[in-house]
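Database export, one record per block. Field names are fixed; values are copied verbatim from the stored entry.
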Amino acid sequence: MMVSRLLQTLVVFAIGIMFHLPVRADVISVKSVEIEQSDDGLILNADFEFDLTSRLEQALNSGVSLTFVVEFELARPRWYWFDEKAASERLQIKLSHNPLLRQYRLSTGALHQNFSSLADAMRTLSRVRSWQVMERDRIKPEASYIASVRMRLDTAQLPKPFQLSALTNRDWNLSSEWRRQAFPVTDEAGAK
């Protein structure tokens, strides 16, 4: 009797956990990815498309900063072993709102740009331009690579109460799938 009661309690607890697990919300879509070879290395240009959920927009307008991360990986496939990871880079872009000035701000490192509307800030946030993801001396000439790009909301950068909400509420989980594409390196870009 005691064992069956314990088993029932465990089953109810397991079902409760299943319904409270975070649900992945793939609401950021990767529209285009372009990798250019330059004299300095590889340059990434990417376009994303997404809208903030009503909860995220409300939190932003209440003074909570949202940090988005663009992640880039470059791997060289090998038939005899695991793929060789050639590069792995992250670009953090912080979106914040100043209610007193009625301005939105995008920050990347020490660079800041102000906007009078959320739509203008989102348009700029969704476009990554001229991001150097790999130096020229690390590029192997005549090699073939697989480039992967994605964007996501970094919930670890949210204030603690919002981090707890992000665990169980899909409104706080914005991310895209990895966009993978083949990228051949020509001899001119890889040669020294």
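Remark 1: Helices lie at 2-20, 54-61, 118-125, 160-168, 187-190.
Remark 2: The chain has one domain: 24-190.
End of record.
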